[in-house]
Specification:
isomerase; single chain; ribose-5-phosphate isomerase activity; Ribose-5-phosphate isomerase B; binds ribulose-5-phosphate; RpiB; RpiB_LacA_LacB_sf; alpha/beta
């Protein structure tokens, strides 16, 4: 899968860990920054991830910050993006099953690195359920 990833300074360490995890599992990763733990403003690095997903340049996107809240808000401003803020296995699973989330947001200050990697794995492996959820996600873009 082709996956874009981006973070601010507060999500930088997990971005690097997730990038290595994805590459080691055969994915093609497009890193939109940031490149260090120096303080930056997250919209600058999150919006390019969301735009790449919306344009079909990549299959999925991952955004990270301290809480993941602002990053999810920024990603969801782009039409066609369904970004789920994930903090445990079930939030990641439901993000795919019910919401067909094409982007996830993770808060580095909220969860362990082990949990962050688990979330990514579940989000990649879980299919969209369709059915009653299809009409609902279609209404998001209407
Ligand atoms: O999670 C975030 C936005 O929702 C940011 O990562 C967080 O606000 C950065 O905070 P600071 O500038 O204090 O390091």
């Amino acid at each position: 899968m082709k996956i874009a990833i981006g973070s601010d300074h507060a999500g930088f360490r997990y971005k690097e860990a997730i990038k290595q995890y994805l590459i080691s599992h055969g994915h093609d990763v497009i890193d939109k920054g940031t490149d260090s733990e120096a303080s930056v403003d997250y919209p600058r690095f999150i919006r390019p991830v969301a735009e790449a997903v919306a344009a079909g340049a990549v299959d999925r996107g991952i955004v990270l910050g301290g809480s993941g809240n602002g990053e999810a808000i920024a990603a969801n401003r782009v039409k066609g993006v369904r970004c789920a803020l994930c903090w445990n296995e079930e939030s990641a699973r439901l993000g795919r099953q019910h919401n067909d989330a094409n982007v996830i947001s993770i808060g580095e200050r909220m969860i362990s690195e082990e949990m962050a990697l688990k979330i990514v794995q579940i989000w990649l492996d879980t299919p969209f359920e369709g059915g009653r959820h299809l009409a609902r996600i279609q209404q998001l873009d209407e």
